[in-house]
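Reopening this one. Same input as before:
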Amino acid sequence: MTKEIFIERYKEVLRIAVMEDKKLSECFIEEDNNEVYQGQIYKGIVKNIVPAIKCAFIDIGKDKNCYMYMDSKFNNTHIKKGEEILVEVVKESIGDKGPKVTNAITIPGRYSVIITLNKDINFSKKINDESFIAGIGENLKKPEDVGVMIRTNAQNVDFQFINEEINRLYAVYLGIAKEGLYSSKPRILYNAGGVLGKVLRDNIDANTAKIIVNSKDDYEFIKNYVGQKEDINLEIELHDKCRTLLDYYGIEKELLRLRNNKVYLKCGGSIIIDKTEAMYVIDVNSGKNVKSNSIDKTAEITDLQAAEEIVRQIRLRNLSGIIIVDFIDINSELGKNNVINKLEQGFQSDKNKTIIYPFTELNLVQIARRRRGKSIHDYIEQQCECCNGSGKRLKNSYLNMLIRNELFRLSENENFDHIYMEINAIYEDDILNNLQDFIGFIGAKNKNFYAKFVDNIEYFKLSPLIFKSQRDELKECLINKGCNLTDE
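Same output, byte for byte:
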């Protein structure tokens, strides 16, 4: 398997796509909008304690107070209202619910993690090499006042590199603790490198052949990071084209397909993904899969392909919480076990903790996946006001970026001064009320821009107006007169 990682930073948005054997497997998005993200460490002040739900509410300097469960295993049952405390975000806010935090601080690295919950040496559950574990016990130099978690990647390097990383992480921890002690107000103290740091720590492995990045600063940061790691050997490429990185490599179209709740399987069947208030529900259909003469064989083939695709879609869309899968009925216990094994194999490399439960009597499979970050839909969709919020539409910012990419693509092939766009009418007010910002963002300030708002189109269509007769017919649609052009 060959893995490539595409890292695109544009204005306030960072998007990272992971391709495995030319197929999109994971996508991470981070917006620089002052929101709270998993892994950040804050200086907080306890504002309220609710004994009935064993929960403390903590001010970290944001609009919403975060909440922390009080439990003896976290040694936090003694905290009092008004107390200052260091907390780490474990779940972002969702809806009206604030972020979830913990006082069990962690500082992650590629080979190890500094932990404050205990002072022991802990190992990833994926490490089974007894000789390696014994070697850690003999060679690890651990600070006395914290614990250390040894990660799977540590098996690929010498003990020297593990100890060096632990020293760096411990110095970071001491800096955070000192800053928190002398800080007078709630505020952020550490962000663990954000989603970029997470991907570099968790997603680069022996199969990673290339990282392609469009930001010079990110290029230098990644180059420096990779140069310090003994177990990483890959190519780093700087993308310098006008079109955005994900659009240039065709990944943007893959992301847009994620808006569809129906995904087709190779066998002719399909899966349908729906979201309810409490959970995600995935239905498996045999569809056009009628190649086998046996109903049981048809069901098993469809379910096995569905299981593989379900894992991919869950990871790609970053679905979490409770996920119920309604597979096609299989009578064979062996067939059911094969489906469960297929699901478990797919989640083996998933960094989000996932639990798969056996088939129920109704042939349902329950999946519980820890929430880390928002789903992909939260970044590219927004509530549609036309249907009183019951539907979804593409986010204005995301749509504007697609228009900008398409305009750059057209400009690569020919030079033109007049451009015509047809776009769904639901975006009319948003565009016309912020016209100059829209024109500036898509790079059309020097062009005569014609727009028609219609009902029977999903997104938009762009085309150059080459002939004067075309422009005459669309004069009433002119919304921007290019500042470098004279009236005809």
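So the earlier flakiness isn't reproducible anymore. For the record, Confidence is low (pLDDT under 50) at residues 484-488.
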